[in-house]
Amino acid sequence: MSLAASRAVLRQSTFAVRRAGIRNASTTAEATNAAKDTASKAQSKASEGLTKVTSSASSVASSAGSAVNNASQQATGRVGRMVNFVQGLVPKATYYGRVGLELGKLIAHQRSMQPPSVQTMQNYIQPALNAIRNPSTLFNRVASEANSAAQSPANVLQQVRNMPREQWYSMGVVVAEVIGFFSVGEIIGRFKLVGYRTKSDDHH
After folding, report:
1. Which end of the chain, N or C, is less surrounded by CB atoms within 10 Å?
2. 131: which residues sit within 8 A by CB, 6+ positions away?
């Protein structure tokens, strides 16, 4: 092969390699752009799917909540009335609970109330623990106090008469609380405010 022919073949092969590189470069750029487009389309489809799932989940949750609410409203009989009654009491109980908490804070602040110290708690707990460990001393003490009260009833009456007014008030509050809790328990047990249910009440 002549020198001119070999140069022509070499030029042709170099030109072919350059053209292939240019083609590869253009196809690589095109492939990159195509991959970017595909990725952006997939991302947009995924975000659309996520939006649809979120909206459907919220609609399902709201429909489930409305179904529960409708079921509780459609419940009949004693259970339905009880559910509706309790649902009506929740806001009132929350409100009055907060009012009671604030009132308790005001009373504690006004009367300078504070939790007892550790020493005071130990002074009250230690005799109770001793009485639990040795109950015979507790029984002996109660018996001796009962005997002394029985021997001198005038002394007991004098102690009652000499009680301060604040102690009478606190005793009245405790008695009112006991009567109130007993009355509420009776109302709950009877399912009625006044009196007891009879057979004739069920027919009305």
Report:
1. C
2. 137, 138
Structure tokens at 145: 């106090």
Helix axes 135-151, 118-133, angle to 10 degrees: 90
Instruction: Determine the residue type at 115.
Output: P
Quick one: tokens of 14? 């170099």
Residue 137: both structure tokens together: 């001393």
The model scores a pTM over 0.90: no
Burial class (CB in 10 A: 0-12, 13-18, 19+), 111: exposed
Question: In what helix (H) or strand (E) does residue 141 lie, and over which residues does it extend?
Answer: helix 135-151
